[in-house]
Write a structure and sequence with these properties.
Oligomer: single chain
CATH architecture of the largest domain: Orthogonal Bundle
Strand content: under 5%
Distance between the termini: 50 Å
Number of strands: 0
CATH superfamily of the largest domain: lambda repressor-like DNA-binding domains
Number of helices: 11
CATH class of the largest domain: Mainly Alpha
Shape: globular
Helix content: 40-55%
Number of domains: 3
Radius of gyration: 20 Å
Largest sheet: none
Structural class: mainly alpha
CATH topology of the largest domain: 434 Repressor (Amino-terminal Domain)
Length: 215
């Protein structure tokens, strides 16, 4: 969904107390000028498809919805895992550094470097941009940069926005295991199985583990 379409959907869902939809002037006043009337107009017309981190947060706070709602029902959501931000900080730099700590390179078992993540982004991020976000020097990444970081680590983009009100679905050990793309594929395919079929899969995995322990 394009950002303009998403914005219109959120304006329709999260209305003002009197039931009317937010307009540009009202959002400018509510955000203290962080989001101007003209900026709102350009977003609605699709002329801004890559807003900054601060704009998305300011609009969400003013309209009263969780910032992660910008990414609800995004494409590829089924191929990602949910991660709790950790204790190192809830800003974008803290959340990104938490991913560097818990997600390891499945081939080497070592943490990724900023250069690795830049390569995995396939040109969407430079090493300098990744470093800038990690250190906080680039404190207001764009929407495309956030999505590129999420894709590189296999998490949903709302990880960088989430308020933390929802319970974590996975711990750090599970997240590390799911850095393996094949493990994520197995998990996703198992979601459609019946309870009986899931028990059969677990039995098979347990049997394979026993064979591995006793060759």
């Amino acid at each position: 969904m394009r950002i303009s379409q998403k914005f219109e959907s959120l304006r329709d869902r999260y209305r003002r107390p009197d039931g009317t939809r937010w307009n540009g002037q009202q959002l400018q006043d509510a955000t203290g000028g962080v989001v101007t009337r003209s900026y709102v107009s350009m977003m609605r017309k699709g002329k801004i498809e890559n807003p900054g981190f601060d704009k998305l947060r300011a609009i969400a706070k003013a309209m009263g919805f969780p910032p992660e709602s910008w990414f609800e029902e995004s494409e590829g959501e089924r191929d990602t895992v949910r991660v709790e931000p950790g204790k190192g900080g809830r800003d974008v730099a803290g959340r990104l550094n938490h991913l560097f700590q818990i997600v390891k390179n499945e081939r080497t078992g070592e943490p990724y470097s900023s250069a690795d993540v830049a390569r995995m982004s396939l040109g969407d991020l430079t090493e300098e941009e990744v470093e800038g976000i990690r250190t906080g020097a680039l404190e207001n990444p764009t929407l495309s940069q956030v999505i590129a970081l999420a894709d590189a680590f296999g998490v949903h983009p709302y990880y960088f926005f989430e308020t933390g009100n929802k319970p974590a679905l996975l711990g750090e050990q599970e997240i590390s295991a799911l850095a393996d793309q094949r493990a994520r594929a197995i998990l996703n395919k198992s979601l459609t199985l019946s309870d009986r079929e899931k028990d059969m899969v677990l039995d098979m995995i347990q049997h394979l583990g026993e064979l591995h322990d006793h060759p």
